[in-house]
């Protein structure tokens, strides 16, 4: 385990979700504020776009965690390749689970009718995998059910640019999107700050990656966090195996070659 060698409490570059390791860039901070405003105002549909590995799923999990910490009704699903009817049943099941959990939490202190009208938030990750226009129309139908001019369901769709192409072909749904945000790859200075931040959270007390190494990581990864994590993780393994004091560009190059050989 390289953690002991580098003096770390945790693995700093795991791709599994841990909100403590979420590096909040100015752009992402703005996106969080924008989405929370949209949810509080019941704007119907929100759209989160970005290339593979940029952190959409991480962002979605962070949003879900924060919503639940505020006792808001939120449910999340990764879109399976379901028929329109199957998709409708899946969404109904998710919303029913929310209603039942809400009822249990209130221990019967509120009428069932009031609970059924409580605003809910549905988050659909990998929404570009929705198979056909008819399935998207299920979402349109859900949005038609409002109360006093407000939507009972706010939906966040997260996906890559294939999702945007699908929505453009469905103007009746596309025009209902109240908030759109694109997660972008990290800039060079953000990549360096991202690396330092995650190392600090993991317990690092000194510099592990030198400045040139961080520049090389950005050049290879294009600022995509998933690639940064994978490259940094393997570089630290190599560095620990060879008892290095710092991670240099030479170590980064070797890690990059090793990763390419596995593809």
Describe the structure.
- A 5-stranded parallel sheet has the order 2-3-6-1-7, with helices on both faces. Strands 4-5 form a two-stranded antiparallel ribbon.
- It is elongated, with a radius of gyration of 22 Å.
- It has helices at 2-6, 26-40, 56-69, 84-106, 112-116, 133-143, 161-168, 171-174, 188-202, 211-221, 225-241, 249-261; strands at residues 45-49, 74-78, 120-125, 146-147, 150-151, 153-159, 177-182.
- It is of the alpha/beta class.
- The chain has 12 helices and 7 strands.
- It starts with a helix and ends with a helix.
- Strand 4 and strand 5 (150-151) form a beta hairpin.
- The protein folds into 2 domains: 26-182, Rossmann fold, CATH 3.40.50.300; 186-261, Helicase, Ruva Protein, domain 3, CATH 1.10.8.
What's a quick, concise take on this entry?
The strands form 2 sheets. A 5-stranded parallel β-sheet has the order 2-3-6-1-7, with helices on both faces. Strands 4-5 form a two-stranded antiparallel sheet. The chain has helices at 2-6, 26-40, 56-69, 84-106, 112-116, 133-143, 161-168, 171-174, 188-202, 211-221, 225-241, 249-261, and strands spanning 45-49, 74-78, 120-125, 146-147, 150-151, 153-159, 177-182. The protein has 263 residues and is an alpha/beta fold.
């Amino acid at each position: 385990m390289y953690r002991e060698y580098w003096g770390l409490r945790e693995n700093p570059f795991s791709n599994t979700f841990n909100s403590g390791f979420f590096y909040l860039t100015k752009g992402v901070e703005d996106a969080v504020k924008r989405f929370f405003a949209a949810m509080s105002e019941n704007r119907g549909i929100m759209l989160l776009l970005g290339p593979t590995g940029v952190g959409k799923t991480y962002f979605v999990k962070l949003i879900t965690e924060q919503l639940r910490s505020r006792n808001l009704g939120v449910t999340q699903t990764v879109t399976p390749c379901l028929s329109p009817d199957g998709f409708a049943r899946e969404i109904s099941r998710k919303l029913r689970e929310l209603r039942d959990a809400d009822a249990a939490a209130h221990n019967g202190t509120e009428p069932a009718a009031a609970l059924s009208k409580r605003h809910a938030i549905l988050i659909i990750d990998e929404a570009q995998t929705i198979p056909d226009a008819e399935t998207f129309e299920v979402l349109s139908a859900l949005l038609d059910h409002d109360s006093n001019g407000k939507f009972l369901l706010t939906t966040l769709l997260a996906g890559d640019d294939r999702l945007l192409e699908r929505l453009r072909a469905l103007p009746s749904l596309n025009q209902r999107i109240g908030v759109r945000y694109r997660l972008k790859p990290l800039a060079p200075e953000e990549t360096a700050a991202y690396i330092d931040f995650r190392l600090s959270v993991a317990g690092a007390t000194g510099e592990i990656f030198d400045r040139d190494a961080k520049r090389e990581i950005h050049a290879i990864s294009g600022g995509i966090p998933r690639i940064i994590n994978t490259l940094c993780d393997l570089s630290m393994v190599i560095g620990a195996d060879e008892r290095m004091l710092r991670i240099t560009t030479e170590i980064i190059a070797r890690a990059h070659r090793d990763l390419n050989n596995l593809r």
